[in-house]
Amino acid sequence: MGTFIQLVIDGLSTGSVYAALALAIVLVHSATGLINFAQGGMAVLAAYFAWYLTNQGVPLIVAILLSIVFSFALGAVVERWLMRRFERGDPDTAVVVTIGLLTLITGIAGWLWTYNNQQFPSLFPLDTVSFLGVSVSIRSIGTTVVIVVAMVLLQALFVGTKLGLALRAVAINPQSAAFSGLPVGRLLMVGWGLAAVLGAVAGALVAPQLTLTPGMLDNALVYALAAVILGGLTSPVGVVVAAWIIGILENLAAVYVPFIGHDLKIAVPFILLFVVLIVRPQGLFGRKTVVRV
Amino acid sequence: MASASSLSTSSRSAAAPAAAAPSFRQRRWVRMAAPLVLALVLAVLPLVLPEFANETIARIGVFAVAVLGLNVVMGYTGQVSLGQIFFLGVGAYVTAYGVQNDWNIVLVFVLACLIPAVAGLIVALAAARLGGLAIAMVTVALPIVGVPLAKRLSEFTGGSQGLSARFADNPEWTGLYDDQWQLYIVLVIGGIVFLLTRYLVRGKYGRAFAIVKGNENVASSMGISPYRYKVLAFTIASLIGGVSGFLYMLVVQYTSPETMSFGHSIELLAAMVIGGAGSIVGSILGGAWYVLVPQLTNAVDASLTALLQGAVLLLVLFVLPGGLASLPRALTRGRRRSGADRGVGAPPTTPSSTAGSGTAAEGSERERQGPA
């Protein structure tokens, strides 16, 4: 039983990382109607930025905060100077653009800092605490808590502030938003920046575990996309829940299903995905979109 | 809106000649003779080229077939697929396993086509259920799941060690060298695949694909099920991927889980877009890009390869959305436009022969300008 609870909590923490990435993808999708395959790559670049700063003697927490500012700017710049041209066009072309961006970012990171694994210092101690007879790693709890706090803050921003209202207006109907005097372009930049920040938080938290490489979040991207499909593109809550389910299930499957093991656990969300797509193609929580011809 | 049509430029391929004398490419004898000349050149070339060039051309042929498969689902049907390399890998593994167990080579070839096609069919049946970008989001998992899966199924795949298999050794009576014989096989099989695909995309199915790409709602209102045609296109793409896997095994004679890594998957997609989406010639250019550019960049600086790939891909999407295959047309269009500025001649009007796909694409663009 002890192992089981430990696995669930570890799964919750990796699930939170997928959730952050998935939420960033949903955020971008609701604002601009496209899937950003470079979301993980941008987070990796932010993590490298933080890693570089810590190597220059900057304290870790400051480095991470600076990397968050950096990734906000990165997201905004990418939106304005790269994606803007493709946003109202064919979504498939825009997807290819983000794939190009992913290649470019991976290339830049690999060129600047090599493709070797780098040690990223952990924000939390690696100890475990005993809780009701179960030992749980502090890192897992810390990762989960930080990401949940980030998501709650984001939700508060969207629901409780004027900026959030404007962002939602742009996401729902850019034309009407523009007619009512909102600076649509700048708000889209903010939306992309916020998504990149969410990714950067996830990247900084998961980097100590995965060790820093340019392709560090490629697998996490697949998990996040699976969570996005499972939860439904239209439902942020559903996406987060789906990401947690995936994180927990894959951890359990890795230990309790001998054939899957640790190397094949990435197949778990994929199998789950197949079942859900056949049975309920709009996702667990999504609603069917109806398009008028 | 010019950028919006980026991946669909092929539908405007007939826009070039205006009225007067038929252009060089349209003259009857040119149209008749060009394929013959091409076939003759391809038949003679392997005999005169050095071994290294033959091997490189054979590798280009392998990946041109893979890119062609990707083009069927992505360029012609408009469904982004990141899984094409997986089907190449499956085809290669099936071939290697069959050859190691001394199966009949024809049977091996058929299996190397069928098994990836069935795998693709199953993936597409699930992925195409969810409209829009779901195919991209699901297929990105294929190479990422495929690599550990190949390592796990080590009794069939040889694990991380991979499999090597040598077959189609040059028979005695031909008097050819191995590299020449292999290149001939690649040219024949690849040529047949290219011809069949060309007929496919220019015929009834190709028109259906183009409408699905242009506007799914229009397609279903015309009695064309977008779901069914997406599944069909994806299955054909997987089958062609399997053929390229067979050819890969023929030329490279070795495969490992690395063959179908995520990085290669992205490179293949980049090669397709850079070569020219929705273009037969573009597929060949894409294959050449896939093989030659890493060789060039490795010669300069290996760590720059990914950076250059990404930068060129973005550059192409910005300035030449039709890929390298559209370069001649873009150049002539530029010249004609500067001519029109001086008051000579008129810019080309609507495309003539591919009216169906053209209007579909335009319809979708117009619709997207309305509130989403």
SSE arrangement:
The complex is a heterodimer of chains A (293) and B (372).
Chain A: H1 2-32, H2 39-55, H3 60-87, H4 91-113, E1 128-131, E2 134-137, H5 138-160, H6 162-172, H7 174-179, H8 184-210, H9 218-231, H10 236-256, H11 267-279
Antiparallel strand pairs in A: 1-2
Helix pairs in contact in A: 1-5, 1-8, 1-9, 1-10, 2-3, 2-4, 2-8, 3-4, 3-8, 5-6, 5-8, 6-8, 9-10, 9-11, 10-11
Chain B: H1 28-48, H2 51-76, H3 84-100, H4 105-127, H5 134-139, H6 141-152, H7 154-157, E1 163-164, H8 178-202, H9 204-214, H10 216-221, H11 226-252, E2 254-255, H12 262-275, H13 280-300, H14 305-319, H15 327-341, H16 355-369
Antiparallel strand pairs in B: 1-2
Helix pairs in contact in B: 1-8, 2-8, 2-11, 2-12, 2-13, 3-4, 3-11, 4-11, 8-9, 8-11, 9-11, 9-16, 12-13, 12-14
How is this structure best described in words?
Chain A contains eleven helices and two strands; from the N terminus they run H-H-H-H-E-E-H-H-H-H-H-H-H. By secondary structure, chain A is mainly α. In chain A, helix 2 (39-55) crosses helix 8 (184-210). The longest helix of chain A is centred in the first third of the chain and has 31 residues, at 2-32. The model of chain A has no long low-confidence stretch (mean pLDDT 88). Chain B is mostly helical. Chain B has one domain (2-11, 36-342): Orthogonal Bundle (ABC transporter involved in vitamin B12 uptake, BtuC). Helix content of chain B is 69%, strand content 1%. Chain B has 16 helices and two strands. Chain B has a two-stranded antiparallel ribbon. At the A-B interface, helix 3, helix 4, helix 7, helix 9 and helix 11 of A face helix 4, helix 5, helix 6, helix 10 and helix 12 of B.
